[in-house]
Amino acid sequence: MTDSHRRGTATALLVAGCFFMEMLDGTIVSTAAPQIARDLHTAPTSVGLVITAYLVTLAVLIPLSGWLTARFGPRRVFLTAITVFTLASLACAFAPNLGALVGTRVLQGVGGAMMVPVGRLVVLTGTAKRELPRMVAYIVWPGLVAPVLAPLLGGLITTYASWHWIFLLNVPLGVVALLVAHRLIAPAPRDETPPLDLVGTLLTCTGLAALTWTAHLLSDPAGGARARTVAVGALAAVALAAAVRHLLRTPHPLVNLRTLDVQSFRASALDGSLYMAVVAALPFLLPLLFQEVFGWSAVKSGAVVLFVFVGNIGVKPATTYLINRFGFRPLLIVSTLGLAVTTAACALFTRGTPVAVIAVVAVLSGVARSVGLSGYATIAFSETPPERLRDANALFATSHQLAAGLGVAVTAVALRGGAALTDGTRSAYAVAFVVLGVLCLVPTAGALRLHPAAGDAARTVVPAQGRVTQSTVSDSRKSD
User: Fold this and answer.
1) How far apart are CA 60 and CA 58, in angstroms?
2) Distance between CA atoms of 130 and 115, rounded to whole angstroms?
3) pLDDT over 80 (residue 43)
4) pLDDT in tens, 169-191
């Protein structure tokens, strides 16, 4: 392995570590909500604001990552983001009241919004197309692992320590990441930066914030005022519609929607986001089923959900080989269909279902998640022109971040709908699992419509055709 390969791999692992911190912080706090509420003398439902403040900040600022990178350079933005995230984590641990904790979570979101998109851009910029599957495999796994580990880790921390350690654990990890990033990431020449699209920023950030807040209101177990939910949802729809209209017309948009012209990127940004919503929902729904219906402890339910992680990691070494051997279209069809089937199969779980059966379904679900997300994350940039890479990265990060939050909201709505339609708690969960399974069939339909050669520029081997070049892909499409 050459020095450039080693440096690229090390950078990808660094970004993966940062992604792990960001994803874990976005999911683990819900496990500690009761303990945080007791210590800060507030209602457990109020702690939901701590989670939402973080997610809203991510949604609002991620679209700005592309422009900030062009303006200040990836190295400066990335190092600053890690520093802000680490210091904010320390401040979260010592927050004296709910208001202070919400404020410090917003600061965490500021760091997280810049940390992963910019880090991913550094990796993508220095990676040849044929190396994309391997590099993306490193970056994707934290997004799969963190939500699965969160229930168990949160249960262990709240049972045997205190909620403060949820945030304190980020401090040594952040310091190490900062030192490694300082050594690995070299200064890069900055591009000519167009002026910031102020109108696009205002419309996009308002729309994304309102959409994320609507998701919070929909997922709130206590239920929010219907009029308020409708009003915030309407604001999101109006602002995002106006943002799309503006972004398509202005010469230097905050987010370049024209990147969606590339079919492979469009499939990842749209179908991949819906797939991500189902992926994010499962680690949220399974622990609730195990604890509320089966009566398991937080530690036991977290340990069983961990079998999803076993499937993720078990197939990960083979992901690049599978992409090179079979191509993106067949793998995305199989992985989306596999996730749909295993998610719907969870509707059949009862208190008497053997743990071994649940574990097998969880492992198969983990395999489908790992292959699918790696496929979508790789195909997104396989045919994107270098001059549009920064725009595509910002749009990809925004859509997938939103999808993760919206997946939980859809699950909560499905649960409430199931409770209204059925006569038992377990039946309500069955309805929710079936809804998520059916939802995952939409990406399956999208994968079926993909061109057979989609993403081949990022593959090393194509069966029966030898090595593929960008020209053969283009020629194949022209012949259609």
Assistant:
1) 6
2) 25
3) no
4) 899 999 999 999 998 888 876 66
